[in-house]
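Input record (Table S2, row 382):
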Amino acid sequence: MTLVPPSPPRPPAPPESTEGLYTQPPTEWSWQVPAQGTARFSWEYGDGRERLLALYQKGKDKQWDAVRRIDWELDVDPYDALGTPPESLPIHGTRYWDAMSERDRGLLRQHYASWQFSQFLHGEQGAMVCAARIVESVPDLDAKFYSATQTMDEARHAEIYGRFLHEKIGLLYPVNGSLQQLLGDTLRDSRWDMPVLGMQVLIEGLALAAFGMIRDTTTKPLPRQILAYVMQDEARHVAFGRMALRDHYRQLTDAERREREEFVIEGCYLMRDRLQGVEVLENFGIPSAEAAELSERSEFLQLFRKLLFSRIVPCVKDIGLWGEKVQRAYTDLGVLDAAGTDLEALMRDDENIADRIEQEQAAEFAARKAEVVAAIDSAAEA
Ligand SMILES: [Fe+2]
Ligand SMILES: [Fe+2]
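Output record (fe (ii) ion complex):
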């Protein structure tokens, strides 16, 4: 018997240059953040913490290929990529909305989807750079091993969102100023725990909640697959962040803990501002101040914001950065209630939902295949 090796998947076509797809070209094509800090080696090769090594093993076991696992053949209407209900758009019900033609409303939906997924994409690139930084700077080898798997996960996520935007939406937004500022603050800090705190707790915590909301509300199968599979990986990232920081923060002095708390507070306000999407409305001719006010007033956005902090707040509490100032900031942001969210349960759900979607996808694929076989059979009989 000859063993025929499976044919390798087709490599993705080289993407069209992004330059022509940006709404406005970025002010610079390469962003350089001067790095500080220390690259650390460990000569202790046999003393890994069981829980971290288990996470590393899981990271290896659960690697996957976006080219094969996602059904890129699925069509996406760029003017209704997510099946977004009109009420969720911040200008719905305003004079601007009333004056818009159906075509312009479609364009507005395209811009919002592009803006949202572009921030996911830029964030994922940031996550990849931060995970690589953690490999370099974290003192223990078990954490370096784990972070190396996360670096690969984040590369896959950036690949996926980049492909979705290039092939399906056809439009990209530059990185949002607040997101870029938090990324910069996170990377410029020389302490090894700051990329974990800034990136994995704040930026990814917020992104994860946004992914979850779109995953659970979109009526379109391709974005649903993408978000569910990305979220399956993110559950490991959150688990690492909590584990690494909880251990480390237990031994901080009060002054050191206060510094981290200040960073969290500032970061959360930046994340709040990153959510508004004022850039989109400006592109539709709405003056900046009015765009900010409309977004701020939008009931949907207020609800969205509450949900978006649902993953950050319990995590911040869990890692022990729960001083009075932090709690006051969350009260001011209207998100203190989120402290009671059961993160473990959310992450278990994320894993189960991805598994379920994969099974549905396999069943649908089998049904499609059976249809083709039946068509060929009946043509042969005729
Ligand atoms: Fe990611
Ligand atoms: Fe991540």
